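Model: Ready when you are.
Researcher: Fold this.
Model:
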Amino acid sequence: MNRFFSLGLILVAATFAQEGSYRLFGDVDKKPMLTRIFIRSTPQGWRVERTTGRDHEGAKTTTLFAARADDDGDGQIEIDYVRASGVVGALGADEDVVLHATYTFEDGSVTETWEQGDETGVAKGYREGPALILERESTFADLFGDELKRYEASGVVLVDQRVFVVCDNSHTILSIPADLDPDDVSSHELKGKGSSDFEGITVDRRRGRFYVVQEGVKRKGKQDTPRLWELDDDFDIDDKHWLDLELDGVGKGAEGIAHVHRDGEDYLFVLLEGNSGRDNDAGRERGKGRIEVFRRTKKSFKPVGRIDLPERAFFADYSGIDVRDNRVVVISQASAQLWVGMLRPDTFEFEDEGRAFRFPEDGSTTRYPVMEGVAWLDAQRVVVVSDRPTAPLDAARHARESIHVFRLPTGD
């Protein structure tokens, strides 16, 4: 009997419970690669797609389709891939197999061992979380017209059912109602010339203070350093503070900021863009997201510690953060995902690995590739702002320079 048979038969036998999508990471010719596996039911039968490209979303990809599958009944599946699109078991026997892969599934993780001609490789990854549910969205141009030439949104915070947005190309703070009513928007202009380099905004609700962070500013005798603007509730500038970050080698600066009040003290969580706070390929070594913690003193903010994000926030970069009632949300621009975790009430440590969610997609292509800032609206909803997409992401024009409200799905 031929060991390959229809994936539909596997499912009938109730031994194949892996429907969903997966992300796997490995190297090909010393270049980091991202592989995504999509397993889903269609009216015609079960379809498995394997999309591979450089390890960042928006890169050029190659898609293969499963023609045959074999389940050993012990959490391991072998699949033959071809270039033709179709359902498992229905493709012609004369199709040329271009890649053979073996998958081992265990506790949400997956390992792929593949063979393609004389080449072999191994990739490891995890089952993706469900997609966020879009509730509403609007472009900044529809809300504010041509007040700004560009709306390169980078940070957002919620205060009294209004969201305040900063852009890294402007010193203007945009004010928008949470329901995105275009008849109730306003703006506040801060003193400054040229691009602001603003990357995040947060609020100390007890003190009535906004904090806006610049990613990195030239500082005499030192490396570029993040700088904090302290504003009162009328957006007048009260003070500016340097945020001393100790980075190993060339580092990425502040990409997001959140205020936390605990045990009578005020803290700022500063999210770094790259893994381990680094640039280039080193910054894409996933599973090493970092938050630097600063405590407010009488005159400044003093670095007091570091929080490592759990490996489940397995992202290529980190672009926005918010904290509410010990619940932390972090988003990634390059990975087009959102992660939620819970801090322990007595320490700045996470209770567990948390959960990751995907931004909505068209098949294997993300519709939201440039998400830059995030804030909680309530326990199940977030507001996210998007930047201006550039090549190779400029095809996602409907997500450019916009504000979006998403709901977290419940259950699995």
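Researcher: Now this one.
Model:
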Amino acid sequence: MFSAPAAAEVSGNIGVASQYIFRGVNFGDPQVSGGVDWAGEGGFYAGTWISSAGGEQEVDLYAGWANDTFDIGYLYYYFPETAVGTADAAEVYASAAFGPMSVGVAYAPSGFSNTDDDEYLYANVGLDFALSDKASLTLHAGMTELMGDAYTGDTTLMDYAVTFGFGDLYVMVSAIDYDSTLVITQLKNDPTFTVGYGWSFDDIF
């Protein structure tokens, strides 16, 4: 969940993953990513996240509004140098936090398959546990429902993750689960390992 600060803040993040998992799909390629986020007064925020995996560069642009409980926003996925026919896509999303538990949903009226009628819905739940003043443990489960006629077979994808955070550093282990009749060639069930680091530019300057 995003917690709105009292004043404007700019932060950054970088990450390296053994594979790229997105909405229950594992593309099986190493991933390097990084992003910049701006959080302003009144709960408004915006940011960008850039990743390279599967022979493509991905640029995500997002903006929204959040407080200590709710988060709503818009996310656009842009592929400037498409190598495998991935289409640009967009989501509207919303989430809410209740103590250590958070729930969220994202809807894409048009997906990434570069075909008609490939909409999908993604829902997720998370549990956060504070282990100490700096250490935390987060459990995540998500479900993607491929709703359009462009998909065949079992159209439900699941993803799971366990994240250990210590200060600005985190380590995540994630995996997916799916029915083998689903026609998506990129699906792989190997676990994924991610290491990431985030910082505030206010701490640097």
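Researcher: Key takeaway?
Model: The chain has one helix and 14 strands.
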